[in-house]
Each structure stands twice: as structure tokens, then as C-alpha cells.
UniProtKB/TrEMBL annotation:
GO terms for biological process: tRNA N1-guanine methylation. Residues 25-54 are annotated as: Disordered. One of its GO terms (molecular function) is tRNA (guanine(37)-N1)-methyltransferase activity. Gene3D superfamilies: 3.40.1280.10. This is tRNA methyltransferase TRMD/TRM10-type domain-containing protein. GO terms for cellular component: cytosol. Residues 2-53 form the tRNA methyltransferase TRMD/TRM10-type domain.
Amino acid sequence: MGGELPTQVMIEAISRLVPGVIQDAQSRQQESYRPELGGTNIEHPQYTRPQKIA
């Protein structure tokens, strides 16, 4: 429990912002969470069960 996992998550998140780290530039444009879109989730809703059980 030395904080390795949170450190890896931060390195991954920050390095994705560096130009050239992501080989396909379109990948970043298709992220499911983008602050420039108001911080909303742009993917369709996903459920593990129906909202209304018949």
C-alpha cells in the first residue's frame, strides 16, 4: 500500500495530454468524458438491469 496504483493512474492521465503520446489523435476526440463539452458523459447510458421490472 505504497501508493503505486494512484501514481500509475496519474501518470497515465497526465501523459495522455502530451502531444504524440496517443498515436491515433482521433482516440482522444472520442473519449467518453471531455471537459470541453461541459464535463458530460457523451456515451449512451449503460445499465446492468432494466430501469422498470415488468
